[in-house]
C-alpha cells in the first residue's frame, strides 16, 4: 500500500494564496493494476498559470476543483511497473501535480533520458516554459536581425529563453528583472544586451535610454506598470506575444486611476501593433518538433543557458509558489519532492 | 487669376470641433506653370481620420498645421491644363483637401473613368474606405465560412463593405448601427444577417442573442461601449482588425470608472485573441491590385452595394464632419463642392 502526500486546493484564494488555500492530505493509492505504473514524483514544476487554475473565473482551462490535487508538471521515477513499456527506475515527464506519488496507465507519460541533459530541464528550458518562449517569440514576435526585443521576468524560465533565442536570431535583447543580482545574471549568465531593474526609481528613463531605436517585440509575461512603460516605446508594426500577466494574477480589484483601455486601443491603432494572446499548446503540432531539435541543440552546445530555483520538499511548495508569483524566485521554480536518482 | 475658397484649421479643437476650429479663406492661386493643371474640386471626402489630424497628439500621420488647409481626398475636374497627360474636363482622384480649387503637377493624381461607376465611389467603396474594409477584413480578420463577423458603424463606407465582403466569403455578418432606419438598411440594402441598434436599451442582450456561436472577427472602427459589449463575446482565437475608434476621437478625458486595461489584457490572453491596428496604406502593395479587381467586380454586379450621404457646398463641410463623428451621417460622407460634370 502506497500513501501519496497530496497538496489539495482547500479554498479559492482572494489575492495572494495563503497557507489556508492548500490542504495536505495523505491519500492511499489503490493497488496497481495490469498496465499501470506507480510513479514517485522527483520534481514538481511551479508555474504562474497555476494561479489561474485556483480561481473559478472563466479561462482557457478549467479550474482545479476544490479538494482536488493541485495540477502541475512533474518529473517522476517509476517505482513499480505492471506496464510492458515501463521498467522500474525509468524516468518520465508526467502531469502528476502537487503530490509525492501517482498511478498512471502510461497516457501522457514521456520518457526522459538522463544521459543527455538533467531531467529537470523537461520542466523548464526544454519543457513547457521553453516552448512558450520559443513558439511565442518566433511565431508571433517574429524578431528580425537588428530589431529590439524586450522581455520582463527575464531571469525566469520563459524570459531567459526569450532573450537568448532573440539574440540567436540576430535581435537585440533587453531584459527586465527585479534587483541588482538578477540584473547581473541577465548580462553575465544569459547574455542580454541590456539589463534593467524595474525596481529602480529611474526605471522609465533607463528603459528609454536602453531602446534608442524603440521596441519591435515585447514578449508580455508580466503586465502591470512595467508593461505600461514598455508600451510607450513600441515601434510601428510592433508585435506583442501575450503569454502571461503575472502582475495581475493576485489582483483583487482594478488598479487605481483612470481607464487606460481607450488610450491602449489608440496606441494599437496609431502604431499598427499586433497584440496576440497565446497558450503554448496551440503551437505543439506546428512547432513542437522544431523546438525539441533546435532547443536541445542550443542547450547542449551552451548557446542557451538556464537557471533553476529548487525548493526542497513538497511542504515548501506553497511558499515557493507565492514567491514565484511575486518574483522572489531566481530561475525556473521547481520543488524537489524526492531525491533525484540521476544526481 | 483663380481664387480657391479654403477651409483652414484655425485652432485645435478640445473635444468636438466647433465652427471656431475652422476658418474660411479666399486664397489666390498663382498663375499656372508648364506641367501643371488647375483642378476644380467636385467631391470632398469626409473621414474620421481627419479628426486625428486636427490634434497634435503623436499619431501615424503628422497633424495639419494651424492655418493650413484641412486635408482630404477629393474628386476633381481639370479646368485648365499645361500638363501633357491631362486635358480639360478630365476627372481625377486627388488629395486636394477642403477647398474649391487646387494646382497640381500631376503627382498623386489618379485618372477616373466616369463611364464605369460614379466617380464619387473613388472616395468610398472603391477608394480608401473600401480598401480599409477589404484589406483589414481579409488580411487580419481572415473570416472563414460559417464564422461570425461583427462590425459597428455598419452603414458607413467601411462597415457596410466589411459586412458584405464577409458574406461573400461565406461568413455570417452582424451589423451594428444607430437607429431603426439604419438597422433596416443593414438588412435590406446591405444584406447583413443580423442588424442591431446600439441605442437600444437591450443592446447587450440583443448582441448576445445575435451571436449564439460567439464572435470570430470583430472589425473595430468605433471603440467605446459598443466595443466593450462585443469583446465579451469573442471566441477563442478571435481576430480584431483595429482601423478606427471614432467613439474616442472627440474625447477630452478618460471615461468614468475603473481601469479596464488589465481585464482587457486578460481577455486577450485567455481567448488567444489577435488585436491588430492598421492603416490601409500598409496593404496597398500587397492587396491594392486584388482590391481594384475584386471590388470593382462586386460593385459592378451588385454584390457589394454602397450608400452616400452628400452635403452641398464647402460651407456645409464642418457641420457634416461633426455629424459623421457622432454617427449622424447615413452612408459615405461626401461634400459636393461644385457640380458633378458627369451627372
In percent, how much strand structure appears in the residues of chain A?
Answer: 25-35%
- Succession of helices and strands of chain A: EEEHEEEEHEHEHEHEHEHHEHEHE
Residue share in helices of chain A?
25-40%
Gyration radius from CA atoms of chain A, angstroms: 21 Å
Biggest β-sheet description of chain A: 7 strands, mixed
Total strands of chain A: the figure is 15
In the CATH hierarchy, what is the architecture of the largest domain in chain A at level 2? 3-Layer(aba) Sandwich
**Please, what is the CATH homologous superfamily of the largest domain in chain A?**
NAD(P)-binding Rossmann-like Domain
Main interface by residue count: A-B, 43 and 43 residues
What is the CA–CA distance across the termini of chain A? 27 Å
Poorly predicted sequence stretches spanning 5 or more consecutive residues of chain A: none
Shape of chain A: globular
CATH fold title of the largest domain in chain A = Rossmann fold
What does this structure look like?
- Two copies of one chain form a homodimer.
- The first copy, chain A, is α/β, with parallel strands linked by helices.
- The first copy, chain A, has two domains: 2-124 and 306-336, Medium-chain alcohol dehydrogenases, catalytic domain (Quinone Oxidoreductase, Chain A, domain 1); 128-284 and 291-298, Rossmann fold (3-Layer(aba) Sandwich), CATH 3.40.50.
- Chain A contains ten helices and 15 strands.
- Chain A has helices spanning 49-53, 128-141, 157-168, 180-188, 203-210, 224-231, 246-249, 261-270, 284-300, 317-325; strands spanning 2-9, 22-29, 37-45, 74-81, 91-94, 101-104, 110-112, 148-151, 172-177, 194-197, 215-219, 234-242, 274-277, 308-312, 332-336.
- In chain A, strands 3, 4, 5, 6, 7, 14 and 15 form a seven-stranded mixed β-sheet that branches. A six-stranded parallel β-sheet of chain A has the order 10-9-8-11-12-13, sandwiched between helices. The first copy, chain A, has a two-stranded antiparallel ribbon with strand order 1-2.
- In chain A, helix 10 (317-325) links the parallel strand 14 (308-312) and strand 15 (332-336).
- In chain A, helix 2 crosses helix 3 (157-168).
- The first copy, chain A, is globular, with a radius of gyration of 21 Å.
- Strand 13 (274-277) of chain A pairs antiparallel with strand 13 of chain B.
Amino acid at each position: 500500500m502506497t500513501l501519496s502526500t497530496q497538496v489539495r486546493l482547500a479554498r479559492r484564494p482572494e489575492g495572494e494564496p495563503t497557507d489556508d488555500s492548500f490542504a495536505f492530505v495523505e491519500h492511499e493509492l489503490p493497488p496497481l493494476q495490469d498496465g499501470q505504473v506507480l510513479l514517485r514524483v522527483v520534481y514538481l514544476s511551479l508555474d504562474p498559470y497555476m494561479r489561474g487554475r485556483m480561481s473559478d473565473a472563466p479561462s482557457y482551462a478549467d479550474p482545479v476543483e476544490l479538494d482536488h490535487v493541485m495540477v502541475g508538471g512533474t518529473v517522476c521515477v517509476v517505482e513499480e511497473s505492471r506496464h510492458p513499456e515501463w521498467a522500474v527506475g525509468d524516468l518520465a515527464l508526467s502531469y502528476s501535480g502537487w503530490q509525492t506519488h501517482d498511478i498512471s496507465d502510461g497516457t501522457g507519460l514521456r520518457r526522459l533520458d538522463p544521459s543527455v541533459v538533467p531531467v529537470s530541464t523537461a520542466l523548464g528550458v526544454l519543457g513547457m516554459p521553453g516552448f512558450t518562449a520559443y513558439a511565442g517569440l518566433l511565431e508571433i514576435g517574429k524578431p528580425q536581425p537588428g530589431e529590439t526585443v524586450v522581455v520582463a521576468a527575464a531571469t525566469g524560465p520563459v524570459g531567459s529563453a526569450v532573450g537568448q533565442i532573440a539574440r540567436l536570431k540576430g535581435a537585440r535583447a533587453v531584459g527586465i528583472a527585479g534587483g541588482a543580482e538578477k540584473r547581473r545574471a541577465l548580462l553575465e549568465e544569459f547574455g542580454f544586451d541590456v539589463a534593467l531593474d524595474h525596481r529602480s526609481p529611474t526605471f522609465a528613463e533607463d528603459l528609454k535610454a536602453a531602446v534608442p531605436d524603440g521596441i519591435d517585440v515585447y514578449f508580455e509575461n508580466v503586465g502591470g506598470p512595467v508593461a505600461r512603460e514598455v508600451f510607450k516605446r513600441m515601434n510601428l508594426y510592433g508585435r506583442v506575444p501575450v503569454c502571461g500577466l503575472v502582475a495581475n494574477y493576485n489582483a483583487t480589484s482594478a488598479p487605481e486611476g483612470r481607464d487606460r483601455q481607450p488610450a491602449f486601443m489608440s496606441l494599437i491603432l496609431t502604431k499598427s501593433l499586433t497584440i496576440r494572446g497565446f497558450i503554448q499548446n496551440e503551437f505543439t503540432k506546428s512547432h513542437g518538433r522544431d523546438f525539441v531539435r533546435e532547443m536541445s541543440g542550443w542547450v547542449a552546445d551552451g548557446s542557451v543557458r538556464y537557471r533553476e530555483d529548487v525548493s526542497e520538499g513538497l511542504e515548501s511548495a506553497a511558499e515557493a509558489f507565492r514567491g514565484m508569483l511575486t518574483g522572489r524566485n531566481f530561475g525556473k521554480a521547481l520543488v524537489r519532492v524526492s531525491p533525484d536518482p540521476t544526481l
